[in-house]
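Folds abound. A case:
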Amino acid sequence: MEGKWLIADRDLNEREGLKWLLKTSSNPVTNIGLASNYREFVVRFEQERPDVVLIELDMISKEDWSTFRDLIHIYNPVLLLTSAEGTFEKARLAIDMQALDLMIKPLAPTKVTSAFHKASRKLGTKNPADGLLIPNTYKDISYEALFISQSSDSANFHIAAFQTESNGKIKSLHSFLKEFPFKGVQGIFAMDDMVVSLFKETGHHLTEQCQKAMRKWEEEFSDPLAIVVHKGNSAEMSLNQKYLLTRKMLDFTYYKGYRQVVEFEQSPEWIHIDPFLAPPEQRVWVDMLTNTDLEKIKKWLYEEFLQLQEPFPDPGLVRIQLTSILAQVRRFMKTNNLDESQSYELEYRYIFNSILYDEVLYRTVQNFILFIQKLFIGAANSNRHKQDPIERGISFMETHFSNSSLRLEDVALYVDRNPSYFSHMINTKTGSSFTELLTAIRMKEAKRLLIETNKSINEISNLTGYQNSNYFSRMFKELTGTSPREFRTNKVKMFKSEKETD
């Protein structure tokens, strides 16, 4: 079965070479389209609806990735990929896209020919109904109008995006919305993770219609639904721009959850946060974990994550912040030898994946709290002498470094070890002496205070465990190459320079 082929590659010689190999193969193909960039690829894809696509992965930008994924998901061609990067990330993308083959450049003719044969065999056995959804157009509006920015009268629409918790129900949602008696609907388009509906920019009470559709959907399918409606004045916006804004707005589900309709007019914006725990916050977490204070941990997580108000922080930064907290929990596991238990290790990986991929923040926080609760029970049942004395000692040092009289003997007593033996253990495991380790902890906090506060050098000296500010300054310069005052001045200048550049 010959079928239609579309070859997309930025390199002219690569495109023509692949075309020549395809024409001269044992099963020659004559219907071959070519594209030299991603925009041209989308246009030709929409026009020709190819049966087989061979595309250079590297030509697809990060911004275009979601539209490419949607196109392949909707039309379901046989997919071959090429790339100059033989990396795990490229292999993962190929697997996610269910590509038949990923060929790494420079392309070997035998490898290419083998891939062509596989694609031909796949095409010969493919059922025409294998595609998940049948594309539809409404009054000359096509998927291309959503994916590519263009000036068109079709931009005069409101957009509503519908998303289920389970992507496996997108086909059912698409069918449901096509049958729902919407007023003013101009198009319903299925993506791989949502369904987009277009409506005339007139009355029709769009938000109320969406709420009714949500109630009806949940009655029939018992599956939570999130709906985002863009109703801004769109005279100067293309349909593609509104589509991208609406897709971005769906990220608010992370904070708001499902079972609601979110209406917006302006471009949604996130606020910036520092996602990493500052040393004082790290010490708070060390104390809470060391004291197995679950109630205090609950209060901290609830106040930090479940009482957020608009404008919300970027969900990606919140996920990083949660992994920063998880790193402290990981240390607690190591200290109590809980990382040696397969069951705890599996639950740790589950929480890590929940932080990275869960669609709703409150669910991640609840899972996190339950996990910590289990760890506390496990720690209570473990033998104290089996705990890692180095991890416990470092945690103790990070909590008490501001004590100018903190000595090796104090930490050794805390972990119930002989001072000389404990000093040897520290050096063996970290490669640093007790004094070097304590100094590094103190200097890390000193740098933070110099950058983030206006405290005097004398105050910072006392806060980091040095009674003599001159000695503190001398130690700081030995380790960083600059005095505390110069360090602060340089950082301020760097910050101003970066701000002016922005």
Summary: The first helix runs from residue 12 to 23. The longest strand covers residues 157-164. Strands lie at 5-8, 32-35, 52-56, 78-83, 101-104, 157-164, 185-190, 195-200, 225-230, 260-264.
